[in-house]
Amino acid sequence: MVSVRRPLPQAPPDLWDRPDMSEALxxxxxxxxxxIYRQWTGATQTQIAAVCEVPQSHVSEIQNGxxxxxxxxxxxxxxxxxxxxxxxxxxxxxxxxxPGPRPEPGVPAAEVPSDVVxxxxxxxxxxxxxxxxxxxxxxxxxxxxxxxxLFLPDGxxxxxxxxxRKSESGVKIRYALGDPESTAVSLRGDEEGIGDGLAARTRxxxxxxxxxxxxxxxxxxxxxxxxYNSIYRFDGEMLVNTHVYGAPAAHSPVLHLHARSGGLFxxxxxxxxRVWASTEGA
Length: 282
Known about the structure:
CATH architecture of the largest domain: 2-Layer Sandwich
Pfam families: HTH_31
Strand order of the largest sheet: 1-7-6-5-2-3-4-8
Oligomer: single chain
CATH topology of the largest domain: Endonuclease, Chain A
Distance between the termini: 74 Å
Number of domains: 2
Protein name: Helix-turn-helix domain
Number of helices: 11
GO molecular function: DNA binding
Radius of gyration: 22 Å
Shape: elongated
Low-confidence stretches: none
Structural class: alpha+beta
């Protein structure tokens, strides 16, 4: 008897916008994506394997955390197979994709750059687990450019221990804080309405990070620049926290970017390098 392959169940229209799914996509955690997808569609691992053109054993290993997806080709197969919007996991749209509705005359078309994984309305909306995952998963490079960034060591009790372990494993860490004695930090404090409170937060962060001064591979410096964005880079992933006049960084939007040649990721990475070139040892 010839077996008939069952078609893939239809996904709920809001599946990709569910908070748990959105977070999994932002982390590019395909194992979690598979779990949530199967929960809401009833799809079997065999059905997923068939449409994604991968062995069923791979689907099982990915879902159970025994295999990580790192290949661009596999990301594309999975996205196209189960219908993940490509831009939600940092992939470019397929060539020949049917364009959306034409804009009204005189109104330019707006396209979301392919390296934008997600936009969070505020830094406070970025899941705490995403910060931990990005720091933990970095294998080559971590760059941090902030004025104070107190929320990291203050909100994660093991933050300095994580950075030390990463540096000891060969990860290069460059960490730039605003010079609390600089005019730029003083001005930013006034603009946020907290005066010297911002410089005080920077000094507290420096106290937290003092334990890293002798860590191999950690370069801690101070900058005196006008900072328009806080930048957090983890290999080919980046979070960019915009700075808005009159509002603290915690209340301002965050872009989650995935490296794409010539894209926004490179634009902000170049900005980091320009600031870094002007820094002095902390």
